[in-house]
Amino acid sequence: xxxxxxxxxxxxxxxxxxxxxxxxxxxxxMLRKIRQLVLIIxxxxxxxxxxxxxxxxxxxxxxxxxxxxxxxxxxxxxxxFEMSSxxxxxxDKNKISNILNKYFSNFSAKECYSKDFSSYLKTGIDxxxxxxxxxxxxxxxxxxxxxxxxxxxxxxxxxxxxxYLSLNKxxxxxxxxxxxxxxxxxxxxxNVKIKLSINNDGKNTESVSFASAFINGDxxxxxxxxxxxxxxxxxxxxxxxxxxFFEKYGYxxxxxxxxx
Length: 260
Description:
By secondary structure, the chain is of the alpha+beta class. It contains 6 helices and 13 strands.
C-alpha cells in the first residue's frame, strides 16, 4: 500500500539524516549504508504477496455445448499479476512469463501498467471449460491449467446448469514455490478480482441467475435471475464473499442457466 511504502521511505530519510550528523562517517561509508538500507527496503517490497485480477469472456453457447457433449472448450481471459513497480515488471517480465507459461494454456505476456497506485503485468490465457459429471458435492478442476470454468448439471438430466470458477490447488502451490524461489514473492488470493462478461451468442433470450455478485454494477445478494437478449451481455464482478470462498475452498459460484 501507499502508506506502507511511505513509512519505509521515511525510514530511509531519517537514517540518512542520522548518518550525516555523525561526522566520523566518511562519504563513502554513508553511501554504503544508504545502499544497504535501500536494498533491505526493496526486499521488503518484494516480500509483499501480489494480488491478481481476472477479466474474461464467457459464452452461453460454450457452456451449453460442454454440458451437452462433455467436450472441453476454451475461452479467453486476461489475468493481471501485481508487481512492485512498472520498472520491475519490465525487468522481470520474461523471467516471470517463463514460469507462468507452465500453468496456463496459450499464455502470452501483454503489457506492464499502473492503476490505483499499483503496478501489474497483464497476461492473456485461454481458460478451459470442463464438465463435472460426478455430482459428489465437490467441484472438479482442470489437471492441466491453473484455473478453469467448471460446468455442473444440478441433477442428472436437469435443465439447470451451475457454473463455477475453479482452482487447481496443487498447481497453485507449485507456482508460488517457483515464484518465491526466484523473486521471494508469492501470489495472494486474498483480494482476487473476478470479472466476466456473460455473452448470449445464441438465437434466443436466455435466463441467467446470480448470487453474491455485482451485475452491471448493481449488487445482487440473493439468488436473482436476469434475461439476456440475443447478442447482448451482462457484466459480472464477484463480491468479496465470492473471492474469499475462492481463496479458501479453491472454487466459487459464478452463475446458473436454465437451458429449457
